[in-house]
Amino acid sequence: MIQYDSANHKVYEGKYEDFGAHGPCAQGEGKQFEGNVVVYKGEFVRGHRQGPGCSYYPSRTLQYDGDWMNDKANGHGKFYNPEGMLIVEGEFVDDVCVDGTRRIHRDTGKIENVKSSGCFCFGSSRRAGTKQLPIDGEGLGPVSVASPKELEAASDRTTALCFKSGGFADSNIKSIDLARFHNLRRLTIEANALPYVKTLRICELPKLRTLSFEKSACVDAVLGVEYLKKEYTIKGAGKTLCIESCPLLEEITFEEDACGDYVKCQLFDLPALKTLTFGSASANPDQHSNCFYWCESLQLTDLSALETLVFGNASFHNVTTIAVKDMPALTSMEFGFEACCGLMDLMEQNDRRADLRLLPALTTLRLHSNALKNMTELRVSGLGVLTASGTTVDEGALAGLKALKHGADVSEEVLNKLKEDKEIKMFKLKK
User: Fold this and answer.
1) What are phi and psi of 348, to 5 degrees?
2) Are residues 310 and 219 in the same domain?
């Protein structure tokens, strides 16, 4: 549908529905115009901005990118000035950022981030009101669920979904597939939520932007303690996370102990993913992230937009093979204390291998103590710009290394950093 005003200027173009006495209204994806210039592009409900969308200045530059409700910014969003600079990011209520981070210029000329509340981004001088309710109960705004019944009741058009802390604790539900939430932009799994779910599928979500797993999310509290004593029980459960076919997903974060008893982590077809963090990385042996502690194999390949990759302390602790390959935008990769160390099984003498290949933009590689320590073979190639100054290998990292296979493009200085004084065999990889 295309609508024009009395001056024959386009005011709307997009999907609509006929609501009888109320006539046709914008419904679904569409664009609003003022003077034939786009001022809003996104979701509508009964003629009102509601759901994910972007507003624009008359100059056609982006003004706001985030959640809307009843024609106002309500939910998570980013606000930009007319010059295209990000001003504030956080939670909005009635066009006012009530809880966010504001970027400001200090006297030094530097841009700094500060906590902000009550930021009137849209020129409003009034106080923020209460959170808006969805129009006609469409349920597009933030929705929290704590049980299978609540999840089933949530609208397919929900834009922000949160599994509440401790949710599903009394449920026997073993799998969750979120594919029906085709309008979802934000997904949060709070602390201790989904402890018994064996298969979690976050797939085919075309609008998902951010995904967060809070502390101890998706971990069976009984199995999560005393990991070493629970090894065979955990492996037998075979818990699996699959994140796939989310073309706009930009950020995935796992906090401490999140998915600690999952044995499979599958990430595919995520072309917009920029940041991937599995807990916090440091040299502190008392700090443990334990994300995917018992996962035995990890393949991270063809994440074309990924810039930052962090393996927190003791994350993927039991992994025997790990591959980080074909990531043209990856600039920083960090392995925390005992991350991906490849827990040694004295009954088995199988080789344990790490592949770091086809990472042409990598400038920072940090291996904290005991990271990758039981890997017997390391393959590195396609690290075109990595230098010795950008490579840090703490004491104990790669301690079990027996073979270092490398491409011709990896500098001798970087190779020396990786092998240190260890007596290992060196091989050139075939093209």
Assistant:
1) -125, 140
2) yes
